[in-house]
Design goal:
The complex is a heterodimer. Chain A contains 14 helices and ten strands. By secondary structure, chain A is an alpha/beta fold. A six-stranded mixed sheet of chain A has the order 6-7-8-3-9-10, with helices on both faces. In chain A, strands 2-1-4-5 form a four-stranded antiparallel sheet, with helices on one face. In chain A, a hairpin with a 2-residue loop joins strand 9 and strand 10. Chain B is globular. Chain B has a two-stranded antiparallel sheet. By secondary structure, chain B is mostly helical. In chain B, 73% of the residues lie in helices and 1% in strands. In chain B, 45% of the residues are buried. Classes of the chains: A alpha/beta, B mainly alpha.
Chain lengths: 298, 353
């Protein structure tokens, strides 16, 4: 089969687009982009007095937080401080004993996990939780599940509209694959990919779900310097292209101090500090949590 | 499931990228295969036709358990009972309502699907081995109900029913016409299963199988997805049962013993989890082995005159278990995986990779 240049140019629009254009168009169809004056002011996600205990272990103690429009909030803290627990409570995976969570003035405390995901709170996992039997592109397509319009019967009979919808969704997923620079491995089974690429696929899967708030749980854990830089670039690009607030849990202080607008510090389930990176670096409570009390006074 | 394409085959559109058959050669081969399957109906004798019809109905039923266990990852040891529900729904519709096979067949699918969903509902709470035991109960309950609800099912005597009414002047009492009907239905069901696997719901099934927690957090309602898997798998089982019962013109509770449920699962391992091709291979292999065991009986009575009865009784069991054990040890991903390796090595021929 010969491939003529004319054929390639004919299908060009369908094949290429850069910078998450298709995803952004798709998202703009459903809700308007955040207004300029709201950025940094309007609260999109709010937690009030969250208490979470596993038996006698108090994992979260009276946590209050606010995430504002267009903000990159980093959550840091020593191991076991309750950072991931908070994310699990927000995404409905754990149920807090006390406290409420509001998403754009809507109470989501008792919503099901998939309902919360459909609202646009998309997350990645600390321990990679991909669908290992599917290829990269199928993983992203699986995350498009709530946004695919046809029902399963028209899928089974493969009606023309189901076929067209598949292609439309595929284009959006390919857009994300291009953005994450994973074109070469798009048809590889995820189980056979390297660690860094799997982490990237996780990010892509969260993107495919059309995030209105992106919750990233240690996206850079276990990566080398180059991979961390790539990942930081992707996070900042997403933040730029989609104008969505991002919650970032991360242990690498260099990255956190560079990218975050605001930082929240946890220790033993308590929120010990909150502020801009400059405030956090000199906060005595944070220093004592990380380095010990003898350094806090210096 | 990495895509193996012959050298020089490029996808220019996403329509091409997601096609089942991509090249003209593939189209030619599948068309030739289907035409050959239709063609041999007119040269096979009644015995081979009967065997083929049984194979076709078991392929459809095997696709059902492939959807439930292979794709959605919900182990079920009640699949033969769901096939049985299909048989009995068809039989009852024909015997009590006097409706024809053509109405009874889809009803058998729907009935078996609903029963399957009911017995699959513990999957909301149970996983893996525990779910396997919950569905094992389905088998006992269904067989108990069928054997004791005599006014409806005729108890252990079974029910007589009739072949499909003639359609467009084709008389299905003739063996090769029924073969053609079963083949057409089987191809249609394979196409449906294939489409299911490559569209929205199929991906959701695999998501639930591979990582149910992530699937839930990624916007998939896992309980309804699992129920749908049971429903659709049961539907396939019911259609398979209706094809089988229509051919035999008789149903009985002994058509779907407990061991069949276990063989369904065992041969799924041989065929390979999570592939349509694997399910087809599994059903063909199972029924061919079954037939081989029957054909071996006179041979055994020649070689071991005194022991023939015992050997025959245990021969198929030994064969099945041996095949399953060999596959578990040497190729745990089944025939499908081996076939993919063969295809890949053919494509790359002079080189190793």
């Amino acid at each position: 089969m010969t491939t003529s240049i004319r054929n390639i140019t004919k299908h060009r629009e369908q094949r290429y687009s850069y910078g998450l254009t298709l995803l952004r168009e798709e998202m703009e169809k459903k809700y308007p982009m955040p207004k300029e004056e709201d950025v940094g002011k309007k609260v999109v996600l709010k937690g009030e007095g969250i208490n979470l205990a596993f038996g006698g272990l108090q994992a979260l103690m009276d946590i209050n937080f606010e995430l504002k429009e267009g903000e990159l909030l980093a959550i840091i803290g020593p191991n076991g401080a309750g950072k991931t627990c908070l994310l699990n409570v927000v995404s409905g995976f754990y149920r807090a004993q006390e406290g409420e969570i509001y998403y754009r003035d809507r109470k989501i405390t008792h919503m099901s996990s998939h309902g919360i995901a459909e609202l646009g709170l998309c997350r990645t996992f600390q321990n990679i939780a991909l669908y290992t039997g599917l290829t990269v592109i199928e993983n992203l397509m699986a995350a498009r599940h709530p946004h695919i319009k046809y029902n399963f019967l028209s899928g089974m009979l493969y009606f023309p509209w189901a076929s067209d919808e598949e292609v439309r969704q595929r284009a959006i997923c390919e857009d994300i694959v291009d953005f994450l620079e994973m074109d070469a491995v798009r048809n590889h089974v995820v189980g056979s990919l390297a660690y860094g690429l799997r982490k990237r696929t996780e990010l892509g899967r969260a993107l495919a779900l059309e995030p209105r708030i992106l919750l990233l749980d240690e996206p850079m854990a276990g990566m080398n310097r180059d991979e961390k830089e790539d990942m930081a670039r992707f996070i900042l690009d997403i933040y730029e292209f989609l104008k969505i607030p991002v919650v970032l849990i991360e242990h690498d202080m260099g990255v956190v101090m560079d990218v975050a607008d605001r930082i929240m510090v946890f220790d033993f389930g308590k929120q010990i500090a909150e502020g801009t990176p400059d405030e956090i670096t000199v906060n005595p409570k944070v220093i004592s949590a990380y380095l010990g009390t003898e350094y806090a006074g210096v | 499931m990495a895509i193996h394409r012959p050298c020089g085959t490029f996808d220019r559109t996403y329509y091409e990228a997601k096609a089942i058959f991509r090249t003209r050669l593939q189209w030619g081969m599948i068309t030739a295969l289907i035409l050959a399957l239709y063609g041999i109906a007119f040269v096979m004798n009644d015995y081979l036709l009967g065997l083929s019809i049984v194979i076709f109905s078991f392929i459809v039923a095997m696709l059902g358990i492939q959807i439930i266990t292979g794709y959605a990852g919900q182990i079920t040891i009640g699949h033969a009972a769901f096939v049985g529900v299909g048989m009995y729904v068809l039989a009852c519709v024909e015997a009590h309502l006097g409706w024809s096979w053509w109405v009874g067949m889809p009803l058998a699918g729907i009935g078996a699907g609903l029963i399957s969903m009911f017995f699959g509902s513990p999957s909301g709470r149970l996983k893996e081995l525990y779910l396997a035991f919950a569905t094992l109960a389905a088998h006992f309950i269904i067989v108990y109900v069928i054997s004791n609800w005599e006014s409806m099912t005729g108890g252990v005597d079974g029910i007589w029913l009739s072949r499909p009414e003639p359609l467009l002047g084709i008389d299905f009492m003739v063996e090769h016409n029924y073969y053609l009907l079963a083949l057409t239905l089987c191809i249609a069901m394979i196409y449906l299963a294939k489409n299911l696997a490559r569209t929205k719901l199929g991906r959701a099934f695999v998501a639930v199988r591979d990582n149910d927690i992530a699937a839930e957090v990624m916007g998939i309602n896992i309980f309804s997805t699992k129920l749908l898997a049971f429903g659709i798998g049961g539907f396939f089982a019911g259609i398979g049962g209706a094809m089988y019962a229509g051919y035999n013109e008789y149903v009985n509770v002994e058509f779907f013993p407990l061991m069949d449920s276990i063989w369904f699962l065992g041969f799924l391992v041989v065929g390979g989890f999570g592939s349509i091709f694997g399910a087809i291979c599994a059903a063909v292999l199972w029924k061919c082995l079954d037939e081989m065991a029957t054909l071996m009986t006179p041979v055994f009575s020649q070689i071991l005159p005194g022991l023939a009865f015992y050997v025959t009784a245990s021969f198929s069991l030994i064969m099945y278990t041996l095949i399953i054990v060999i596959f578990l040890v040497l190729e745990p991903r089944g025939i499908n995986h081996r076939w993919n390796i063969i295809k890949a090595s053919y494509r790359l021929h002079p080189f190793a990779y």
